[in-house]
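Quick illustration for those who missed Monday's session on complexes.
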Amino acid sequence: MEWRRRHVLGLSDFSPEEMEFVIDTARSMEEVLTRDIKKVPALRGKTVVNLFFESSTRTRTSFEIAGKRLSADVVNFTSSSSSTTKGETLLDTARNIESMKPNVLVVRHSASGAARFLSQHVGCSVINAGDGANEHPSQGLLDLYTILKAKGKIAGLKIAIVGDILHSRVVGSDLHSLGRMGAKLWLCGPATMVPKALEKTGARVTWNMREAVKDADVVMMLRIQSERTKSPWFPSIREYSRNFGLNRALFSLAKDDAIIMHPGPINRGVELSDELADCASSVVLDQVASGVAVRMALLYLLAGGSHAAH
Ligand code: CP
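Prediction with phosphoric acid mono(formamide)ester bound:
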């Protein structure tokens, strides 16, 4: 397959072949990460700017490490210490950064569509690192890769995604990555956060945690997106946790070899008990590790490398 994209803004228009191509490239990158010297010159002379207008631990660090592993120069922009605090607009900020000739802008913003908007106004590549409640494509791809590594396939797996579905950009991308690869997706949470209309996506909707988890191959837990949910969507955290938190008894309903996923950050004791967050079935840290390889693949494909990275 020939890679033709200049931007990665979401997975809604990604074909299964394109996703497989990214995963194949990530596999090559993962081999680099097993070496003593985890660095290749593939993006020497290229510049990646992490333009983050929202907090991040995993995504920003992962893109930074990914760029550095490929020998790109990586610059981190944090809005709280930038001139946006003096009133500069998103577009002016991006145009000013673009004048310094980066090859890739990695953008996180609270507004849905922010990365797409910037891609229409700058000459370099743009990767969406999370835009509001819309999409988080690199997370969708790393979730796909993590499940492939754990299960060897996606098609036919029952994958239960539990939590604040309505406000989750991770779900916004996972519905495309996992759904398009043939997973049987179940969405579960309070009715206020999991509207029945989501069945239009092809996923099953249930407000019953036992039904979601029963015989699941993968249970993916999500946190409540409190930064995007100002109104009271459920009576109390305690009640939410009782009805939609994953504990040992509930997880025993899943298949014996089921895995537990979470994109992070985990709110321990709310959606996931301490015991399960750290148990042998948890692949939460594998997701983070996969993220570096997937982001190396995306940077490499966008910044003009050939498929052979070494
Ligand atoms: N999964 C994820 O996006 O985590 P961060 O918000 O820490 O980047």
